[in-house]
Design brief:
The chain has 651 residues and is an alpha/beta fold. It folds into 3 domains: 218 residues, Class II aldolase/adducin N-terminal domain (L-fuculose-1-phosphate Aldolase, 3-Layer(aba) Sandwich), CATH 3.40.225.10; 159 residues, no CATH class; 206 residues, Rossmann fold (3-Layer(aba) Sandwich). It is built from 24 helices and 19 strands. Strand 14 and strand 15 form a beta hairpin. Helix 6 packs across helix 14. The longest helix has 26 residues. It is elongated and about 100 Å long.
């Protein structure tokens, strides 16, 4: 654990809040201290109100902000006197506590402060830092953890038994502080929960955190070495897709699956047994449920066992007011040692994967030490079904229609393919674009919106790309087969073999290769579908485009056969036939002007030469594509949909 403090950077802080934000980012930057919202910080200060009255206040990290990146905007100012008065109460429901802390805000529009705001207010020091440090939690969760802390720290650290975060934890701190001089300690460890450091100086509070955690890390390392795991490839990608399908069925909707670290296969059963004894920190039950699923050769039976066990775990609450969350595992250990997470969207799945990685490292040490004992079932269930967590779920916005879906779009570097990728992403899907154009790696470079450079006529490259998709996201639900080239001007009499072969290779054969390689994964997709991008030329070809027209007609026939073959698998296959889509790279201003002149039209007239006098854009085609795969047309397969503004020759 290395200190990240820089005096030059710290000196840039002009206010207490600036300095608080700076040192908070240092804590958030180290995932061994905080992971996805685990931890919070505060600073006590003063404020002069509108009436000239000077108030004692406390700035507390607000819920929903990331310590690693937030500035002053991530803190909420509270009336310190009012918050401290809450600590004088003997009982207060967590919902009422949240409401009272909301009422204590100086700015009514500010975000809700951390649920540990009262604890921060009670600790009688200007700066308070709180983390869920992995090393401290690992030691805390092993039998005899308190004795090990005494061995490591002597009497420099106060160790308190676990109390659920919220008002109960505040009361514990209130009573301890009333009878204890905290200045005699470098830190307070809340067993199974985390560590608090504090000082009237931001630097000293931060350095205490680093020192205390570093000593815990050193103790683990010196006694048991380092926990080192690898991250392997997908193994059997079809098996991964099948497991994700099974989890999606339990979840009641599509999930994303991310890979985590792998452990030796010989350790799987041992780690699985340890993981039954509690999460690393109680908050992890919200991300990853109380334990993972154990999946062997038959994922279906492993998932059924998880569901049965989770239903029993929920039922033992014997609380008719609770509604069971979807009984699907948020992570799983496979018998060969691979580990994968599952979540309703990419962010949630990634959080689960990170938590799984941290948990596996803790299991390494638990195995070496000899056992693991986190919180029991009731404490974990109380937190997983905590009224505050239930309220958060109710406030969540409805998911977009394609959230959790995984899509591949070929020819996605520009034009129709790019528009399809954009619309699918807007609708919530993870989208991977495939194109020979290297620019795709720049235009598609966001989380869940990724471009891969490959030659789509190379079947091995296509197979590798789809295996990569499954390895990184869990499966495949949507294929938009769009790759194509267009070369004009050659009549059959003068059409060369090179052009003919090249056009058919891209416009027809590459689609067959993509569909062929996708089918084993689509078989395990969630409401899976394929959409091919054809052309108006299928119904109304023109002279000078024999290779293009033939390739698109062949592609349409391929679509029809695929629809027949894949219907029993539940895979829909349809075609969209665009015409006169001019916002693509194919249509340069010069080419557009030349074509318009050939018909004796202005450019605007040429672009709208259809029955509706509409200018067809790539996005119009993309929206038609989505109609086949976003639930708008769930019972349609083998269909051909024109997007041409109405063409009299087609009609």
């Amino acid at each position: 654990m290395q200190s990240r403090w820089n005096n030059t950077d710290a000196a840039q802080a002009k206010t207490d809040l600036d300095l608080r934000a700076y040192s908070s980012r240092l804590i958030g930057a180290d995932t061994a201290l905080v992971l996805h919202g685990g931890g919070n910080t505060s600073v006590k200060s003063t404020h002069t109100d509108r009436f000239g009255e000077k108030l004692d206040i406390i700035w507390v990290k607000a819920s929903g902000f990331d310590l690693a990146s937030m500035g002053p905007e991530g803190f909420t100012a509270l009336d310190l006197r009012r918050v401290l008065k809450l600590a004088g109460l003997e009982s207060l429901s967590d919902a009422d506590m949240v409401n009272e802390v909301l009422c204590a805000r100086l700015d009514a529009s500010a975000a809700a402060a951390s649920i540990e705001a009262i604890v921060h207010a009670l600790i009688p020091f200007k700066f308070v830092d709180h983390s869920h440090a992995d090393a401290i939690l690992t030691i805390s969760n092993t039998p005899g953890g308190k004795e090990r802390f005494a061995e490591i720290y002597g009497d420099r650290v106060l160790v308190l038994p676990y109390i659920k975060p919220g008002f109960d934890l505040a009361i514990q701190f209130r009573d301890v502080i009333a009878n204890t001089d905290l200045s005699a300690y470098d830190a307070v460890i809340s067993e199974n929960h985390g560590v608090f450091t504090f000082d009237d100086d931001a630097f000293r509070s931060y350095e205490k955190m680093i020192l205390v955690v570093d000593e815990a890390e050193a103790w683990l390392r010196n006694n048991y070495g380092r926990a080192e795991f690898t991250q392997t490839d997908a193994g059997d990608p079809v098996g991964v897709a099948a497991a994700r399908k099974g989890v999606s069925d339990l979840a009641g909707g599509a999930v994303i699956s991310r890979k985590s670290k792998s452990i030796p296969g010989s350790n799987v059963q041992r780690y699985g047994a340890l993981l039954r004894k509690g999460t690393l920190t109680p908050e992890h039950v919200i991300h990853n449920k109380p334990y993972p699923a154990m999946l062997g050769d038959d994922p279906e039976s492993g998932l059924a066992a998880f569901r049965s066990e989770y239903v029993g775990y929920f039922g033992r609450a014997e609380d008719a007011d609770l509604t069971m969350l979807a009984p699907f595992p948020h992570w799983a250990l496979f018998e060969d040692g691979r580990c994968r997470s599952f979540g309703p969207n990419l962010k949630r799945a990634s959080v689960s994967a990170d938590v799984a990685d941290t948990t596996l490292e803790a299991m390494y040490y638990a195995d070496q030490i000899g056992d693991w004992q986190g919180l029991g079932e009731q404490d974990l269930r109380d937190l997983e079904y905590w009224e505050l967590e239930q309220a958060k779920l109710k406030r969540q916005k409805p998911a977009s229609e394609l959230t959790g879906k995984i899509a591949v779009v070929s020819g996605a570097a520009a034009g129709i393919g790019q528009a399809c990728a954009e619309v699918l992403f807007e609708k919530g899907a993870v989208v991977i674009g495939l194109d020979i154009d290297p620019s795709i790696s720049e235009t598609m470079s966001k989380p869940g919106y990724e471009g891969l450079v490959l030659d789509l006529t190379d079947e091995a490259a296509v197979a590798n790309a789809l295996a990569y998709v499954v390895d990184n996201y869990g499966g495949l639900d949507i294929v938009v087969s769009n790759a194509g080239i267009f070369r004009t001007g050659a009549k059959i009499e003068t059409l060369g073999d090179e052009d003919w072969d090249a056009i058919l290779a891209v416009n027809l054969s590459s689609h067959r290769k993509l569909i062929k390689q996708a089918v084993p994964f689509l078989r395990h997709g969630i409401n899976p579908g394929i959409v091919v991008i054809g052309s108006r030329n299928v119904a109304a070809p023109g002279g000078g485009a024999a290779a293009y027209s033939v390739s698109k007609a062949g592609l349409t026939q391929l679509m029809r056969v695929a629809a027949l073959e894949l219907a029993p698998e539940g895979v829909t296959v349809n075609a969209v036939h665009p015409d006169a889509v001019f916002d693509t790279r194919l249509w340069t201003p010069e080419a557009l002007a030349t074509s318009a002149a050939r018909y004796g039209l202005t450019i605007d007239e040429y672009k709208t030469r259809n029955l509706l006098k509409a200018e067809i854009k790539s996005r119009d085609v993309a929206l038609a594509v989505c109609a086949f795969i976003d639930g708008t047309l769930p019972a349609t397969t083998g269909a051909q949909l024109p997007v041409d503004g109405g063409n009299d020759r087609v009609i």
